[in-house]
Amino acid sequence: MQTFNNHNDLCFSFPESWKLDENDTSNDADSISVVSPEGGFWCVRRDLRDTANKAVLEQAVAAMREVYPELEVEHVVDHVSDTELIGLDMHFFCLDLTGTASVRIWQTVTGKYVIFSQAEDEQLEQLKPIFNAITTSLIRG
């Protein structure tokens, strides 16, 4: 496993075969993504703005619906290391493939984190445990 640590507030582990993509998108948010060799990806974005969780989720759905108008949305609550993550699973079609995107919100004293993952459904069974392990490593710090 590789470890990403920005020596500030983000630290997580991810598989050796995955590629790290770090982008500083603005003063308000930092985005770090890891991409699997198969094309699925996991991303965490730190957002210091005071946006309500519901609004963050609505923005995610709106952005996905621009690309996938027939998006199906399912509200979910996950628990990782005694931490509640609210979010959505979004199911979509692209050409003859189906995909799933998940967004979760993790609130800490240092800020709000939006965790996003996406994969083709054919790969999701293999990648979902990896996405969950990366998220768990992030929350445990």
UniProtKB/TrEMBL annotation:
Organism: marine sediment metagenome
Protein name according to UniProt: DUF3805 domain-containing protein
